[in-house]
Design brief:
By secondary structure, this protein is mainly α. The protein has 3 helices and no strands. The longest helix has 34 residues. The relative contact order is 0.15.
Length: 95
């Protein structure tokens, strides 16, 4: 459940920021990458500082941050590519 929240919640927040901005594709993907790289640090801050869970230094956290950022980048990018096409397809059918 925790891993689901640490991946799905950042993806939803990133998409809620990127989609309404309606930037060009390259800038949207740059924004997705930037926010995805920041997401592990924000999640760590929420768990350690705000929720006051016990956080211990660990050498594998860097690898975990990298993997979490990659998961969020891939999932956000795929949803960002597929979602506008589905919305355009629905608009054409309703016209």
């Amino acid at each position: 459940m925790t891993s689901l929240l640490t991946i799905v919640l950042p993806v939803l927040i990133i998409l809620l920021i990127v989609i309404p901005l309606k930037l060009r594709a390259i800038f949207s993907f740059l924004l997705i990458i930037t926010l995805s790289v920041c997401s592990p640090f924000i999640v760590n801050f929420v768990y350690c500082s705000i929720l006051s869970y016990e956080c211990k230094p660990d050498a594998l956290k860097a690898a975990g941050y990298l993997l979490l950022a990659l998961y969020v980048i891939v999932i956000s990018s795929v949803i960002y590519i597929v979602l506008p096409k589905k919305l355009k397809h629905k608009q054409v059918q309703s016209s």
